[in-house]
Amino acid sequence: MRLVANYCVLLATLSLCSLPALAGQASLHDLLENQVAQNNSVPKAVSILVQNYPNASEVILNEAYRSYPDAIPKIISGIAQQQPGLLSLAVDQALKLPGVDTDAVVQAAIHADPACSDVVVNSAVNDEPARFSQIMTVALSTEPLAVDSIVQVTAEQHPDHINELLALVKKLVPDQADEAMATVKAMFALKKEDDVSAQQGARQP
Questions:
Q1: Closest listed residue to residue 90, CA positions, set 51, 35, 148, 137
Q2: Quick check: 156 and 186 in contact, CB under 8 A?
């Protein structure tokens, strides 16, 4: 009876808590393992828990990554398919862990949901800017049709790398090189117009 009561308390805590207030990490581990046993799948267990207790998504993901480090790419893939709104959080948390294979995380997330390519590559590059070329190579090789969104987020968030990206696009997906260049030119032209308008507005009394 005491075990049942403790389990119910944990469920109530998970459903009501804020992330910093979540207590009982050991009990959370037990809950996670129970879900894994029931579903015979780590990704499915994690998806169920974050869906049922959205306020505790961060701590649930942390516990899942800690408990099942070899399953991180599959967990990321499951989040991309089932809770895409949590993908940025899931990727960011995974990439901050020591020893995590960034390329595997990027590949798993983009393969599961190509529409999230911009979110994934942006998170990865922010975490490991020195590996920009490798990260983009993995992303473009995994989903060539995501070129446009990858080019857009790079132009917006990492403009210093745009020439490097265009060179990779030309090498890996040459049939989309012209379209990528046109996207960049259009975005930079629009930004220039916005900058001019802002300067003119600042000069007005």
A1: 51
A2: no
